[in-house]
# Entry
Amino acid sequence: MAADDRLNDLQALDDLLARRLRDAHRRVRALALPQEDRARLTRRLLAICDVAKRDIAHAAARLDAFIAYLDGTSDTPSRRNMPPGD
# Structure
């Protein structure tokens, strides 16, 4: 059996999530943002990594939302986009 053969589907999900997290980290590092904003995004990714240790499906859903936020397609407005008083 070759080293890269998959033993089960769960392993494949683990690998896919790991690749997506790596790509998200690379995207955040490449953004032209102030250091504090980049640190905030990095902390969010680290929280997703922590969740992945316990619940892969939940981590994948959170990563989907995070990537949607990076793409600007998130359906939940951030607090910065809300007018004063709301």
In short: Residues 9-30 form the longest helix (22 residues). The helical segments are 9-30, 35-52, 56-71. The CA atoms of residues 57 and 83 lie 34 Å apart.
